[in-house]
Design goal:
Strand order of the largest sheet: 17-18-19-20-23-21-22
Structural class: alpha+beta
Strand content: 15-25%
Radius of gyration: 27 Å
Distance between the termini: 52 Å
Number of helices: 15
Shape: globular
Number of strands: 23
Length: 679
Amino acid sequence: MTKGSNLSLTALSENVGSAIISLGWSSPTGEGDADVSVLLLDAGGKVRSDADFYFYNNPVAADGSVQLLGKEPTGDGSEDRISFDLTAVPAEVERIVVAASRYEGARFGELDDLKVTLADAGGESLLRFVIEDAGEVSAIIFGELYRRADEWKFRAVGQGYESGLAGLATDFGVDVDDDEPESETAAAPEVPVPVVPTAAAEPETGPAAMLEAVPAPRGPVDAAEEAAPKKRAARPRTAKKKVTPPRAPVSLAENESWRQARLFPVSALKSDRDRETRATSVLLSVMAQVPRFGRRVTAPFGAPSGRMETFTEVSLPHGDTPRRPDGVIRVERAGKLWTALVETKTNGNPLRSDQVQAYMDIAARRGYEAVITLSNDVALEGSPLVDVKIDRRRKHQVALWHLSWAEVAHQAQMLIRHEGVGNAARTWLLQDLLHYLQHENSGCHGFQNMGAAWVPVRNGIGDETLCQGDPRALEVVESWERLIRQVCLRLGGELGQKVLPAQRTRRGTDPGARRARLADQLCLEGRLQAELRVEGAPGLLTLSADLRTAKLRTSVEIPAPEQGYPLTWAKRLVRRLAEAPADLHVETLVEGETGGPRGTLERLRPEPADLLPRDGSTRITGFRLSLFKGMGSGRGSAESGFIRSVDDAVQRFYSSVVVHLDAPVSGRAAATAKERASV
């Protein structure tokens, strides 16, 4: 599509009762990001109330018409996906605006490949709009859905706002004034005062944090009330809410050998078939009984918000021999059914192409919307787990989706620890599900095997016999990418924050070409590397696995402050790391050189000045903090030992080092601090 053009969704597909819109971008530095938002507008072009504004703190509409699904890493950046159930949009809503905004002084002109795509309920991509002239704006309307003659259309907008999310929201009737302290007596005329976060204060994250709820409309005001001192009505803040799971009561067991009875026992699991059958039944039953969890799992696949029922071991005709998919999910809304077949694998067993192909054919013939595969493996863009032929000549198209057990556990963790599910009984159900998935007998442990190429590649690097172009190196790179995505899920579930792989790629590079380049780099240097972007961290977390030395290095770079003296920086950094491991390596980064002074934290604690270059004129640009550990191939198989060691390294580094560091200072706060320092 071109800017300003519009298209009818029904002219593109017959399956547009629900749709998924994806906003995507890439960053030359690998650090650029943005937050999406959605506004529902009436005939006057304004929101009806604050409930019509959706962002990270208000991601789901009560009627299921809108759900922000969160970020997904892509081959050259990331994308935010939004699910719309257009059949549930209230009749008085005539337009749906889809926008994104940047924060801390960032501009969209710094990002590449700005685009919006729209797919129907079957996952079929219908349209694409690329924004090529973003410029120096901090908020952009990517596009909008609007009604015309009882059908939905999409318009490619691409309109930017220099005033950011606040200006965009104000234009559509959202009140963005900050709250002010209440006073019991008459106050002096209000004078806006800039607020500068201190080191002790926890800064709000993202632009949406400054948006306030809209107060109820006021009725007529009489003269007496008008003359009285005005007291501003308090409005709820949009800071992220914290959820505290119900505490377990003190155990009545006589000793630790007593084990509580579990709703989902794992002791009797003896075969892979037992594990698959029970895991499928356990998951699907909890999805049906905990609606918010079921919705979180199925919304990315285009399922509407409605009454969900789940089934196992259903017999469906297929030629001479009926087929029995592991499970079936059905969601009913407004008399319409959305149906997905589920094929499950546990304990590292691979998916079989012939099985999945049969279920795709059955779903197409019966008018089902999707086939969902579920296993310990992690799907990658451009690298399908199973080869399936899709007959494009069929009028009804079936979408094929994949879900990892690690993703299921991640969604359960997020709801239990950080978001909540409504009541204690549902929380208990989710907790028992999570206990089941994490038990060693369940077989639902996520990605656990680096593949058949791992040991030969590792040995080839050690004896320098691995050559560029070896296909086994590419297999290892793909396994490494799967592992990193799983590490992000686990860390994000623990923190309740966004954790995504940060991929520094050239514009337009496809995933296959990028992985081929990384495979050649592995053959030459013997290292696997990855960067993780953690919301609120002072910089990217870098993870490097050196296969020659069998060492893992986890590190983060901290930029030098703009104010103060180098010795003050060094002393303050050492004080902040008082609880960090003594073997933490601290390195000073200097301008124009490969590296500056370095040492372990144990040695630097009594002498922080050792971090300063002897040449006082050398400019310090920052500090690099690193922890090293062995790759851990001693316990169990080499594959599982390595995966455990990577996960442990990231968890230990974040919990023992990163948590002690200052969060990045916003551009506005830094500018204000600089102005104050110059006064």
